[in-house]
Design goal:
alpha+beta, four-stranded antiparallel β-sheet
Length: 98
């Protein structure tokens, strides 16, 4: 199963949910850029946002080169339902069941 996320944070939160709550083996989960370039998503979020004061100098170099893709290898319908739930919870787009 595959889904795309607008932010790296949403992709990472999805993986945490799958591994910690639904006990899916981390080796069965792959995170990748949707394309050839490194990406943190299409919008800043989480650690890509400016930090509160006092803070080091602001940065504007987040790699916003496309969506973040999460792929999960699942073998049964119950786990597939859990994956779909995690994808939906963190606003996945373009979900694909393989």
């Amino acid at each position: 199963m595959t889904a795309k996320f607008d932010t790296r944070r949403d992709a990472e939160m999805t993986v945490e949910r799958l591994v910690q709550q639904f006990e899916i083996d981390r080796a069965k989960v792959v995170i990748a850029a949707d394309g050839n370039e490194n990406t943190a998503g299409v919008a800043e979020d989480g650690s890509d946002n400016k930090a509160g004061e006092p803070s080091p100098e602001a940065r504007d170099d987040a790699e916003l080169n496309g969506k973040v893709v999460v792929t999960v290898d699942v073998a049964d319908d119950a786990k597939a339902d859990e994956v779909r739930a995690a994808f939906a919870e963190f606003d996945a787009s373009e979900q694909v069941a393989k």
